């Protein structure tokens, strides 16, 4: 195909890098380019390039200033930098693409739009454009190649081979890589001795998103493209929500969106040095954490899990209201010492936001305390997510409240910068398939971030009857080294429990060596970090069976509109243990 006069337009967020936004009033304050995206732009020098981006309240002058600061602005023609605030159009219809083709003065079929969101690519194709789901596949699309999902059985030295062939990984296990690539890669990989199975129809990556469905596999079966030992690999068409296939018996993390991420082929992430052993002299003083009480949890659960927010589902207006209120609360803590950022990403045609608050340390090595801010009530039927309530008090209002309370307490305890940086991050779209944490962890890995520990709190509020048992999940079968570091982190929490929360039972620690493995492996936001080489541990109520002899106490209101109960004292006990572990990790060298 002759592509000499084709014009390539890129989305900004999720495609070329990560936008950084201020807390309300929200404005673009930075942009962190992906290294691979910059390399692609270098390869396209001499070709006409443009941008099509939804920019919220920021006009072109403001966006261009940010892009200029990171060396991106002048790679794109001035007239082809098309921002929604300037033109009064968004990427939710073909119109903005028709306008862009007119500015480029070329026929629609000579235009290519590269963006990660399948819904937006669909509108570009309605305008007669070609599309690319990832920058690494632009050259193939320009050459007229069709794209395929692939399942690749890997051998030694496979990351370097896949990088060279422009294979974009979506999910990596110990033996298998799920990826998207041009169809030519099938022949090339087969010739190199790889076992390769094309998945789904030709060009499926152009108009679908790939998911791993576990408990919901039967409901989503008609979109299945491959069986996996963990469930069913499903290619959902643009506009289809995984919520539409929510089974009544779904467990935590019942589906996961498989995000394109070249960093999954990169060398292993920094492995943090072993933490110092916990001794009487290094153990924190429990009195220092006494202000982290049940009332600090209960107050926040009331504010974020009742009206006027009403629901934190990604399709509900309450989600954005919660984001803004969380950012404002973070900004007001500790006399404004926390640096607060909104980090947008796109999912299902919507712009959603993670919220990050940073307490800078002497080093950039970071300890993360995390939870998810969204909610769902899909097990209550009928359910209209755009308008019906989804209070999500336990899942995960309890974790949300705990992260805010921990941030408040640690900032008060650390008037001077700690040894390492502390970050408090609340992820969006966890219920859509760990999407927000995946976007965040992908950006961190691409930036080479040194993350020493991730402490995830997900459902820490349900305990109606004794014992006051709880769980820690550190399993990660894909990489034993990551699991070992995660298990060490869980061990620190275990040792701190009797000191910080003596009314709690010792936590049950789940890992891959148990019969049946760790049932939460890959099922909460901590796994997004483990997949990218970072040690991470999930703290939760007694949700799963085993490994202790006690029976679990699963929340009967899980994913229902009746998820309104939290035992705030129980949640505060778990939060104090996590706060103490974060404090130790942040204040202890190396």
From TrEMBL:
It holds the Pfam family Peptidase_M28. It comes from the Bacteria. InterPro entries: HAD-like_sf (IPR036412), HAD_sf (IPR023214), M28_fam (IPR045175), Peptidase_M28 (IPR007484). One of its GO terms (molecular function) is metalloexopeptidase activity. Gene3D superfamilies: HAD superfamily/HAD-like (3.40.50.1000), Zn peptidases (3.40.630.10). GO terms for biological process: proteolysis. Residues 507-527 are annotated as: Disordered. Residues 354-580 form the Peptidase M28 domain. PANTHER family: METALLOPEPTIDASE M28 FAMILY MEMBER, PEPTIDASE M28 DOMAIN-CONTAINING PROTEIN. This is Peptidase M28 domain-containing protein.
């Amino acid at each position: 195909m002759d592509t000499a006069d084709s014009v390539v337009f890129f989305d900004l967020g999720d495609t070329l890098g990560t936008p950084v936004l201020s807390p309300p009033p929200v404005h673009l304050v930075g942009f962190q380019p992906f290294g691979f995206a910059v390399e692609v732009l270098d390869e396209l020098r001499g070709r006409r390039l443009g941008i099509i981006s939804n920019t919220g309240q920021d006009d072109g002058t403001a966006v261009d200033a940010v892009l200029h600061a990171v060396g991106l602005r002048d790679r794109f023609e001035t007239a082809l930098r098309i921002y929604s605030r300037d033109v009064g159009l968004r990427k939710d219809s073909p119109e903005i693409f028709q306008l862009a083709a007119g500015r480029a003065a070329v026929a629609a079929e000579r235009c290519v739009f590269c963006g990660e969101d399948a819904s937006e690519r669909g509108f570009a194709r309605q305008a007669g454009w070609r599309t690319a789901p990832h920058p690494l596949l632009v050259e193939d699309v320009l050459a007229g190649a069709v794209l395929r999902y692939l399942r690749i059985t890997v051998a030694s030295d496979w990351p370097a081979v896949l990088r060279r062939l422009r294979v974009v990984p979506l999910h990596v296990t110990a033996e298998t890589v799920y990826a998207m690539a041009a169809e030519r890669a099938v022949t090339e990989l087969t010739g190199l001795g790889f076992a390769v199975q094309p998945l789904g129809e030709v060009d499926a990556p152009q108009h679908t998103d790939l998911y791993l469905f576990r408990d919901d596999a039967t409901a989503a079966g008609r979109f299945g493209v491959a069986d996996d030992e963990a469930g069913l690999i499903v290619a959902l068409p643009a506009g289809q929500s995984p919520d539409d296939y929510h089974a009544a018996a779904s467990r935590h993390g019942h589906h996961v969106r498989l995000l394109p991420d070249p960093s999954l082929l990169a060398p292993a992430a920094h492995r943090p040095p072993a933490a110092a052993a916990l001794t009487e002299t290094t153990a924190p003083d429990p009195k220092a954490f006494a202000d982290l009480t049940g009332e600090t949890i209960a107050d926040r659960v009331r504010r974020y899990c009742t009206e006027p927010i009403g629901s934190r589902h990604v399709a509900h207006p309450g989600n954005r209201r919660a984001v803004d209120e969380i950012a404002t609360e973070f900004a007001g803590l500790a006399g404004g010492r926390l640096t607060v950022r909104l980090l947008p990403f796109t999912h299902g045609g919507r712009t959603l936001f993670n919220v990050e608050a940073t307490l800078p340390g002497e080093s950039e090595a970071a300890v993360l305390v995390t939870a998810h801010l969204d909610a769902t009530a899909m097990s209550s039927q009928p359910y209209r997510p755009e308008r019906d309530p989804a209070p999500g008090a336990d899942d995960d209002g309890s974790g949300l409240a705990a992260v805010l309370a921990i941030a408040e307490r640690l900032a008060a305890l650390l008037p001077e910068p700690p040894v390492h940086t502390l970050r408090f991050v609340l992820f969006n779209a966890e219920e859509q398939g760990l999407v927000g944490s995946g976007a965040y962890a992908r950006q961190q890995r691409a930036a080479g971030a040194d993350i020493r520990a991730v402490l995830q709190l997900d459902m820490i509020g349900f305990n109606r009857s004794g014992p006051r048992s709880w769980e820690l999940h550190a399993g990660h079968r894909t990489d034993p080294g990551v699991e070992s570091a995660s298990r060490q982190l869980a061990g620190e929490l275990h040792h701190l429990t009797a000191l910080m929360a003596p009314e709690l039972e010792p936590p049950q620690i789940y890992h891959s060596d148990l019969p049946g493995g760790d049932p939460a492996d890959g099922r909460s936001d901590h796994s997004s970090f483990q997949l990218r080489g970072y040690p991470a541990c999930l703290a939760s109520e007694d949700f799963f069976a085993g490994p202790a002899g006690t029976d679990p106490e699963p929340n009967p209101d899980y994913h229902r509109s009746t998820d309104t109960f939290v035992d705030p004292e129980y949640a505060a006990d778990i939060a104090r243990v996590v706060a103490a572990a974060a404090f130790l990790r942040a204040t202890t060298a190396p």
